[in-house]
Fold:
Amino acid sequence: MQNFRAKPNTKMARALEPDLNDLLWTIPVARLIFGAGLEKAHLMGWAMGNRISCATATYFPDRVATVTLLAAGGLVPATAAPGELNRLLSDANLPEEEKLQLARRTLFSPATEDAKVREFVAELRYWPEGRNAQTSANRATPETEWWSGGVAPMLIIQGLDDTTAPVGNGRQMKETEGERMLTTAWRVFCSSLCHFILFCVPVG
Structure:
């Protein structure tokens, strides 16, 4: 799903904010499913995509076949220092070395090679409109409205080194969902795996 509000210098980026919530984010996903003529779709989400996938599966349960969550967060607070991730993603004027330190503490594993962290920082772009839209939706929607992710089978993949979406989220999902988690959900916890999974998949 393309987030056009995150595209700088576009009409959507300059548009007035609607009353955003996670239901609004699910509508483009549902339109894709219906528009493609799919009976059901397999959803995968990372970071904010977790919320969108779970919310879609909650609001449109009959159109979702499975849900896969990467670095699932929402219930258990981050173990990274409060405000560090927001500073990294919001302040384009931070010195490069400070960005590297913040990225290492909030998005990466201690085992991640320095070159990968530097690559991420070098490619980091700042789109405040998109970030503000996500923040507004997050604040407007209680976790209890989307966290269960509907009734579809679910796979949760989380890194033991994730300080932004700690593994406690996956463990709490099992506790809160009870019998459903025993029969339709699987959890995979990986050492040396961090929040920014695509950059820190362990080698070998």
Notes: The longest helix spans residues 22-35. Confidence is low (pLDDT under 50) at residues 1-7.
